[in-house]
Amino acid sequence: MKQYLVKPETKVKLSKFDPNDTGDFKTGDFKDGKEEGLIQLDKLNGKLEELQELLFAEHKHKVLIVLQAMDAGGKDGTIRRVFDSVNPAGVRVASFKAPTAEELDHDYLWRIHKQAPGKGEMVIFNRSHYEDVLVVRVHNYVQPEVWKKRFDQINEFERMLAESGTTILKFYLHIDMDEQKERLQARLDDPTKRWKFRLGDLEERKLWSNYMEAFEDVLSKTSTDHAPWYVIPANRKWFRDLAISTVLVDTLEGLKMKYPESEENLDGVVIE
Ligand code: AMP
Ligand code: MG
Question: Residue 197: which CATH number?
Fold first, then answer.
């Protein structure tokens, strides 16, 4: 999955990333990439379950997963599928909406920092502090001289989290305009999905190229060794889930976690 990693300080052009990419899982006459991919995903789900249990038991590392995407990009679906089998006791989702009056009275990282993971915990950010250089920039909610400073501020904030024992992974779910149209249309047509449809999403859609420019800046300026971005091809939901699960499992395995010993001496203990 290394091809989706944004190397620090490289200029990202999103038009160079194919949202339909399915990596090594190609679909041809004799091969169904999706079928194979789903088998693989199932295995990864099981591994993630074990690794998360270990993370919780060891109570040492903190894990932060950031999800960003356009509307209907698949943030909710990713959370549902990738974290399918983990124990909810050790995993938390923090969703960031338009800031409340109290949040607006504070700096933009105030509400974010409060949700950062503690030891043994895995936290998924459904949207994040990156909204403050995305929607806020595109809609001119603050002046350019204000949001332009935020890239450095965010890098420093994330460095502080990393130096405090947090493993940070950031995923941009890359869909194209056609895919968004289909998904928004499905929300409109399906009574069980209508609650997700906002007329405002259509206004945002008109600003697609502004958002792409904002995302390109985010990816170019804030992918660091301590908090890397991945551009995940996300038109195919199964591949999106597979790619994210793979990165997550590889990263957690790299932490070399161990189950702790009991704090008491259990040698020779007999249960009557
Ligand atoms: P959803 O994720 O569909 O529930 O929508 C949440 C909405 O909150 C989106 O339209 C975001 O753009 C918006 N939002 C999240 N964070 C911010 C922020 N810092 N400033 C303004 N709007 C935000
Ligand atoms: Mg929405």
Answer: 3.40.50.300
